[in-house]
Amino acid sequence: MFMRYLPHTQEDIRNMLAVAGCSSLDDLFKTIPDAVKVKDGMDLPEPLSEWELNEHMENLASQNIACKGYTCLIGAGSYDHYIPAIIPYLVSRSEFATAYTPYQPEVSQGTLQGIYEFQTMVTDLLGMDIATASHYDCGTALAECALIALRKNRKADKIAVSDLVHPSHRQVIDTYLKPAGYEMVRVPHTKDGLTDIAALEAMDGIAGVAVQSPNFFGHIEDLAGFKKMADDKKCLFITSFTEALAWGLLKKPGSFGADLVAGEGQSLGITKSFGGPGLGLLAGTSKLMRDLPGRLVGRTKDANGQDGYVLTLSTREQHIRREKASSNICSNNGLNAMTAAMYLSTIGKIGIREIAQLNHDKAVYLKSVLTDAGFEPVFDPPFFNEFVMKAPKDFKQKRTDLINRHCLFAGLDLAPYYPELTDHYLFCATEKVSKQQMDQLAKEVA
Amino acid sequence: MKEINELNLPEDVKYTKDHEWAKAEGDTVTIGINDYAQDQLGEIVFVEMPAVGDSFSAEDEFGSVESVKAVSEMYMPISGEILAVNEDLEDAPEKVNEDCYQSGWIVKVKASDLSEMDALMDKAAYLEMLKG
Amino acid sequence: MMTTQRPGTKGLIFNEPNVWDKSREGRCAVSLPKPDVARAPLDASLTGDAPDLPQLSELDVVRHYTRLSQWNFGVDSGMYPLGSCTMKYNPKTNEIQAARQGFAGAHPLAGDDCSQGALRLMYDLEQYLAEITGFDAVSLQPAAGAHGELAGMLIIHAYHAKQGRQRSKILIPDTAHGTNPASATLCGYKSVNLKSGPKGILEPEAVAAIMDEDTAGIMITNPNTLGLFEEHIKEICEIVHAKGGLVYGDGANMNAIMGVVKPGKVGIDVLHLNLHKTFSTPHGGGGPGSGPVAVTRELMPFLPVPRVEKDLDTFKFVADCPDSIGRLHTFYGHFGVMVKAYAYILTMGAQGLLDVSRLAVLNANYIKESLKHTLNLPYDRPCMHECVFNDANQQSHHITTMDMAKRLLDYGFHPPTVYFPLVVDGSFMVEPTETESKEDIDQFIDAVKAIAKEAETDPEKLTRAPVLPKVTRLDEVAAARKPCLRG
Questions:
Q1: Residue in chain C lying closest to B67 (CA)
Q2: CB contact under 8 A, A290 and B69
Q3: Domain with A436 in it
Q4: Are the beta carbons of A64 and C115 closer than 8 angstroms?
Q5: Domain membership of residue C193 as a residue range
Q6: Counted domains in chain A
Q7: ipTM of predicted complex
Q8: How many CB atoms lie within 10 A of CB B73?
């Protein structure tokens, strides 16, 4: 039976066993005590040929509604954007995809320059001093920011987190903070769908405050106000976001003096892929350079005076600091960071402005046609790309019909996340949704 | 890396088991890391120093020294309050490699109990420790 | 054995500036969608200037990244024997599977009914990984090995909390990967160092001497990072269990023992796996990976949420798990990576995976025996999937492991892992994996022998290496003293 990934012929095995001083392949494992060896093999399906695998996987993929080319009006941390053809083409180059972490920089300049450029473009995007080479996703990046704040301010053991930070992100922060003995304090929201800054004012002993903007409801928060509050309380100001394209249009978090920014970069040329892998973005001020977790690429020169790039400030990392490391992160989302860099280079300054504007235009239009169709616009504040509406009584059934008949996902039910918001839905419209699709939706739900 | 007999170990300073040096002038004690430490670490890229006004007890960790491949914590030889930190090291951490006893000094401390200096090793005792 | 030409040779490679240096005002590489709705201005107080991203044509972008890729060495370029990393061939069919519209286009919040394909895949993959490792349940949520380690430590922490008595210490062998103590610290545990014995493996007496009722457990990598099987694993697990502790297994080296040993059956309570090592998903220049965590029945309640459950023939996410450590990832983990690992397991089957481990171990032992008279072999014993040498033989010529590694680049090989594990000075850890052919391995062996000869006769060739790649040795000191992290 031939296996195309295993090159050894019987002759190879014979020759190599002789050199290795073993009588058989089983003999290679003679140092393993019998008591510990597997006796009954592994119960796994019979191996599939490449052609059988294709059929099996196509069948499985077709059980996901995505395969029918659906219309997705849900965001909530995963966004449906156009991905230019050159992106998957370039990122699949095996020199990028099959390389390891660039620990031997001389033969990794492709990855290293690519990630250095990624770091630079992220700082431009966010208006911050330094960006790391990536994190797993926004939730874990935000949890790491919380830990940075708590370590820097040894007298405080609490972090204030807006409850309009993505619900899953808040859960991740909680998972990270609990065993270390820290507490996450919830900052409630006002009836306007914004974080309650007055409630935050009353809080003491906090190491940092985290506010997402645009927040989970899509609203743009008063980041300047929160910065001032954080300064008054002498704590770190952390902001987060889930839709990276927002910064093509909105004032950047750095311009408000954010100390740390955590973000989701999946919108930057990366497929939704059922929620992962995405791209965690983490940026900070120069003052916090040595506190940032994860890898950093720096520019330097080689022995011949040529410019080159290396991983640097590695003494922060786990392989050197070990138990004193501030984070245990080793592998990050490197190839997705390269993808984002390629995407940002492709859309460029002109493209990001236009695409961000289009996203906003589409969302505004969708909100207006839904309003005309009988939905209630619950909140007033300016929003980007996502917004909340209260649905008419019969919407639930219609929403299911829309999925079954038109493969159209009309909004996300918010009740599981905010129990007081029954019949409220979070809608998202990106540049991919057409006026025609939005008009059709409005007709169906009216 | 240097052999033990190649190390520069001045007579007029005291040494600790963690390879710091300390020199008293009145009740101000200047502290740094010694030639063995800087040689072992290799080229130093960053020195993490405490703030002026911070107080420590003897053997407390007061900062760290980083090279490309390692980080080493520094421990107080004696108790006291930080009077000054060597700000030159922010831009030129290599001074610790080049001149660890003079321009590569790290902190100056107001000793709370000068007699603690007596517990430290002189050159001979430190060499014994290294060889042993 | 006749040696063929060494693979490393000279070639034309391009200079390529930073992407912003190619920027020209007015260029755009994306096809802008046509607006079909009215422009909706946002209040000027909320909008800022467009970020100063580069402006390029499409060909500029394509050339830029094509040239950058040509400076990189990947598994597809040549042998990449990085110890502890399992740089095996990344099957291209796996990429096709992950890119299927039904998977790549799936929104994580589409609802269970509309995601049966993804849920079934995740459920089946959990079952397969549990079967391969001998555990009762698996969570695919952790996004990387270190993340899986954190999950494992959090599970141990939660277990002890549930017992009503939290403990403060974790035993960690001196051969452990740096993520182990870092993960333990994140849970508030103090790492207690455990020295390996003279045979390079842990001795039960050493564990028994320090295991007590304030120790939450032990973190063990098996085979360990010296490439040696921890022969006393069963006894060590018993010692730890006897004092109420748990055993965490670091499964990074699973490539050596599939079908040979099931960690869940020898006493390990919780194990993490690296899909981007053992299960062939690409390393991507640093990620994304995936680090599933496998547990015994007793620890199942603590797994991260949501869990995937089967109800007759449909699948669903379940979040009502009161003892769970919580959520570790915004959604369900790195699904795109899971698809590739799933496709790999279906391609290999049980016999195939057993062959993978046997041939990986064969390749490593072949290298060990072939090079042990050239490079110093601190532990001259049968190894598993990797073997550790060092530079003791070359020291009289003032040649270090680093010099030999850099010279290997000129010969057309990615160097092995250097200076890890820390227990061997100047370590040189070689993990060929099972996908390397005898001819490629022979070329590697010949290259190392040639380099050892050069160390004696012409050491400058090593200290000046590498000369063929785009750059030579870089000034890492300057990079750390005056960090320049953006352009």
A1: C477
A2: no
A3: 66-83+348-445
A4: yes
A5: 94-347
A6: 2
A7: 0.97
A8: 12
